Amino acid sequence: MFESVALGRSYSKKEFAAIEPDLRVKLFEAQRGVIENGVPVAVIIAGVDTAGRGETANMLSEWMDAKGLRNHTFWFETDEEKMRPYAWRFWRTFPSGGETAVYFGGWYGNAIRTLKTGDAKAEENFDRLMHRWVRLEKTLTASGTAVIKIWLHISKKVFKQRIKERLKNHGEIRFTPYDKNTPEDYDDLTRAAARAIRITDRQEAPWHLIDAEDPNYRNAAVAAVITSAMNNAVRIKKNSLKIEKSEPEPFEPSPEITALDKIDLSPSVSHEEYKKEMEKLGGDIRALTYKAYKKGISSTLVFEGWDAAGKGGAIRRLSSSIDARINRVIPVSAPTDEELAHNYLWRFWRHIPMAGFVTVYDRSWYGRVLVERVDRFAAPEDWGRAYAEINDFEEQLTEGGNVLVKFWLHISEEEQLKRFKEREETPWKRYKITKDDWHNREKRKEYLKAADEMFRRTGTDVAPWHIIPAEDKKYARITVMKIYKEALEKALKNSRKK
């Protein structure tokens, strides 16, 4: 793969001086284009050690408008990062519309450096991680982010020379955590890189392999690649705006029986039983969440369901059983301008709890396949792609030991109408009823179909759905508490086996 890259291409000082002004102007104009058109750009600068990644980033900082440029390194894992899923550190830094983010090594650097050849299990895990990055990049590019991946390469001979020079002058040169390599590391590094590039080189986010032996040639090639990619991203954005989107097909509700149609809504509990159960469950959850906190086991609780189904009441009762210092409730409403400038999952990744903490989402990322689908805020290809993106997101949450529990609170159409009218007639409840609630009620059949597909496609082994009969609010609250209690007990039991 790399044999045709490190060929010693170069520009003399005179040749580079002749082309540098034009390269700088074109790169600056390309950046202005992405800023004016609101295109997010993520640039990964990876490569062989001593190939000039730092110098390349410095060149970009000099040639580009610094106000729209952000550099990100991931040399040391912070305590904050250690306490969350691995991809969190990247999601929180993804650029908004018009910004350019430069990543040293990106999400590839650590995996490439740590892969040891000859270990089948390590290689299997490596391949699995590479496929995860493919899915990540598909998610980013599908939402309009230009992902530019650059690999700077040098020959083994040049690598040996530069490493020896660094070792000789180590007192004058500040070492990064990865600079203390030996010439023997070159083969392992390039084998791992070739494997990563082979798996992740895709049309939507291709790799650009650049001969980096000569700094002048390297800088010119990098500038040309980024300029071309930015201009192409702007063209795609402009063309997408020019295309007159046809009206989607009429949303015909399925005549088939849905998962919600089969839910028995009759369960109820007496007031006395409710008080007794809630007191006991509250004490159990308080103790269990404290144990989970001590062991670094976090929880993410998702509440979805019909308007007026009792989500708020269930969340309040549950939250009162958890120490407020480790619990946070995230109410999800229409996205802000900042959130709209990112991929739709960005605003949820930001609130992922640290190890031991609890985050409760009052509505969630499932809005993509519910309200955005039903009200046509998202195109069919966007919400249709979201099922796989959500499953991948939730898999990453649970891999880190996060207790993920998803609730759907279900009530009948008749009970919902009764509660709507009660809210309208009760002064202190009137704020709870809005035009959106009545609008959503009119589209109930469409929501039934959307929810049914959501249950089928996102009810996975690692993150199953719990559909709660909520005609009786007391029964629903007890059931939510029991399910969370059991999930915590299971997680704590599994932690003891490790």
Short description:
This protein is α/β, with parallel strands linked by helices. Helix content is 51%, strand content 12%.
Summed up, the helix count is 19
Assigned CATH superfamily of the largest domain: P-loop containing nucleotide triphosphate hydrolases
Low-pLDDT parts are 243-251
Q: Please bin the fraction of helical residues.
A: 40-55%
Per CATH, what is the topology of the largest domain? Rossmann fold
Q: Estimate nothing, just give the exact number of structural domains.
A: 2
Give the neighbour order of strands across the main sheet: 2-3-1-4-5
Name given to the CATH architecture of the largest domain: 3-Layer(aba) Sandwich
Q: State Rg.
A: 27 Å
Mean pLDDT: 91
Structural class, by secondary structure, is: alpha/beta
SSE pattern, N- to C-terminal? HEHEHHEHHEHHEHHEHEHHEHHEHHHEH
Summarize the main sheet.
Answer: 5 strands, parallel
Overall spatial form: elongated
Strand content: 5-15%
CATH class of the largest domain: Alpha Beta
Q: Separation of termini?
A: 41 Å
Total number of beta strands: 10
Descriptive keywords:
single chain; 498 residues; alpha/beta; Rossmann fold; 2 domains; five-stranded parallel sheet
Describe it for me?
The chain is α/β, with parallel strands linked by helices and 498 residues long. It folds into two domains: 13-242, P-loop containing nucleotide triphosphate hydrolases (Rossmann fold, 3-Layer(aba) Sandwich), CATH 3.40.50.300; 264-497, Rossmann fold. It is built from 19 helices and ten strands. The chain has a five-stranded parallel β-sheet with strand order 2-3-1-4-5, sandwiched between helices. Strands 7-8-6-9-10 form a five-stranded parallel β-sheet, with helices on both faces. Helix 11 packs across helix 19 (473-497). The radius of gyration is 27 Å and the shape is elongated.
